[in-house]
């Protein structure tokens, strides 16, 4: 493997600069519908290119950060997470706690779906059931339990639970509402919702969608008439497309791309803090006889990873090394430790534990985070320096990496992956990643097989605590317990960064790496 940290070869940044300057990508074709006579988007069309393929406008099984922009333009929830990480009403007119185990909700009056059907309480009840029942649910992992819907009248209902869920108003922002008769315990392919846009056409395999203004929308009509969503995984194509004006917005740009685009006429960079943690995560489905089932071995391997070099040379200081098990941008974050680079210590610890002749298989999906391939190649060099063999397996978008992650396909040792807290709360990420139980693992509804009973107990205690002071104490204890289990060889916190053409106004990038499409406008 080529070491991206050393040697005389050109860096990715230098290659991109040279290629762009030479116009090597001038042949990138235009596929956006309703383009103008020059091949550029028309005056009423916004073209958005995603770095990962959007396979559904439903979020039950997967919700990468920037997908939220498109999903929430079509489907909506009772609430949404506001800019200050506070839940605000959307389809709910009001949502208030009514005791420790009950919330009372009143639906917004007069809301209809894009096909004219009215929003009903039964739609909310069915949505909760479907999110709970779908196997491998992304969203279900965030709920300590799913509440029961108890109707009061046509618009008012209770959400009752056995134990307190003090952040239920935030969690309900994750449940996208669909007509009950159309919903099922699967990732929906149809796009009927209450949002400001409806789906005119789509190609799930290609990751392309055409959204048009929903004339039946209950809120203020969006200014942009049409949105074209494209999938452009190749970084060079993304740069050239936004430079040329073929694409208006590209998401999740790498440090190299930012360097290419910053300061160019007609292009602006938007940056926000991030709610995401990117990790090199261990496989916790290993048998007891496997060295990786021992937290001491996992800790020893972490000393082989030169995180400082990755931050400086691969990410060009555009990320920060994690100092905890959740990003420091989350409410409820507590610092638990730092990753240290000490390969000699790694060797000694492994020798003392009697671990030798170790081989690691590292898997990841293309586009999981910027510069992902360079990171994996660097890990090969770093582990090789302590005589550990590695094998890299890269999955393309639309592949079967989900089966591998759930332990249904091949075996692996380390996973390059990212995980966000869509509520902006530390407890949500802790619940989703580290609150696995034996019962959840039977249906593969844990995060990479992570089931550590003492950790789950501490997280559950924090999740059910209504008193803010006690909850903070319990959160700190839970996070330290996770850190001490050594779930990651290394982890880092990225920034949310996108590039846009200057004709795009009203775009407000949130820490969730998304933005409300209804607020965007196109300027002449």
From TrEMBL:
<dbReference type="InterPro" id="IPR030678">
    <property type="entry name" value="Peptide/Ni-bd"/>
</dbReference>
<keyword id="KW-0813">Transport</keyword>
<protein>
    <submittedName>
        <fullName>ABC transporter substrate-binding protein</fullName>
    </submittedName>
</protein>
<dbReference type="Pfam" id="PF00496">
    <property type="entry name" value="SBP_bac_5"/>
</dbReference>
<comment type="similarity">
    <text>Belongs to the bacterial solute-binding protein 5 family.</text>
</comment>
<dbReference type="InterPro" id="IPR006311">
    <property type="entry name" value="TAT_signal"/>
</dbReference>
<dbReference type="InterPro" id="IPR039424">
    <property type="entry name" value="SBP_5"/>
</dbReference>
<feature type="signal peptide">
    <location>
        <begin position="1"/>
        <end position="35"/>
    </location>
</feature>
<feature type="domain" description="Solute-binding protein family 5">
    <location>
        <begin position="86"/>
        <end position="438"/>
    </location>
</feature>
<keyword id="KW-0732">Signal</keyword>
<dbReference type="InterPro" id="IPR000914">
    <property type="entry name" value="SBP_5_dom"/>
</dbReference>
